Amino acid sequence: MAAIAPTNNYVVGVDLGGTKILAGVFTQQLKCVGKNKLSTKPERGPRTVIERISRCVKEAVEECNLTLEQIKGVGIGAPGVVDAESGRVVFAPNLGWRNIDLKNQLESLLDLPVFTENDTNLCALGVYQVELESKPRHMLGVFLGTGVGGGIIIDGKLYSGFNKTAGEVGHMVIAAGGPKCSCGNLGCFEALVGRQSLFHRIKTKVKDGEKTVLTEMLGSDLEDMRSGDLRKAIQKGDKLVQKVVEDAAEYTGIAIANLINIFSPEIVALGGGIIDALAKEMMPIIVETARDYAMPGTDKEVRIFASELGDDAGITGAAVLACRQTQ
Description:
Layout (H helix, E strand, L loop, with lengths): L9 E7 L3 E8 L4 E8 L6 H18 L7 E8 L2 E3 L4 E5 L4 E5 H9 L3 E5 H13 L7 E6 L3 E7 L2 E2 L30 H5 L1 H13 L6 H5 L8 H9 L3 H25 L3 E5 L1 H21 L9 E4 L6 H14 L1
Parallel strand pairs: 1-4, 4-8, 9-12, 12-13
Antiparallel strand pairs: 1-2, 2-3, 5-6, 6-7, 9-10, 10-11
Helix pairs in contact: 1-2, 3-10, 5-8, 7-9, 8-9
């Protein structure tokens, strides 16, 4: 690793997810100079998770041969409804959190200024500023992972809405009466295409007697399944997994068509762990379905693509937030 100048011109971006915590150390020019990852372990409760975030940040900084004194601030994206002004996570179903004071608790552990925002808002912000160089006026980000979320850029600014909750695209109801979502509703976008819903559907079909190469790869209980395993199964000609993934891609296309009809963006960027693992299998179906379902004319010249930032979109957007807040 190249030597890093001993200044305090660095920020840390953190992406807090239902399964992992990812922290990245960035320069003021938004170049990532080091990363660290830990499992989230939400079952241990909010205080333990926040302590693990602190540990993840400290280890990322240490890996870069830096000290916390050289960090100007920490940006963090948390799943669910986040009050960015107070720094509280109002509701995060994938973590089991309600009204958790993330900002103040993390500041007390790190002795650094901490700035919070919804995780997928920050993913969209990262794609917008770093990957798209802030060029489009209107952009939507849709991110498929443990949960499903989105971010809305209007006139070059992150749009949060009246209650500061805009962008919760994962909780659009796509199939009324469909599977139950972690938010309590039935048939949400997230309940149809989120990672756990895909895994649950595969496991259910296996219990009903359908065959998949995943049982040969992972064992009959399929407990260690990952998104990348689905790609490997499809490459081996697995019809069950292919059908589940194709269905998820179609639902995603329908959701994007609805968003195009409502917001008329120039750009729709997709990301998240599922897209990272399955872009080749899903993106052609997503784009075709979105164009089929969008009202004629609304999708004219709209670019729909998979972000190249991949898993780093969240930490990049969190670093953007920290840079803006500490300038």
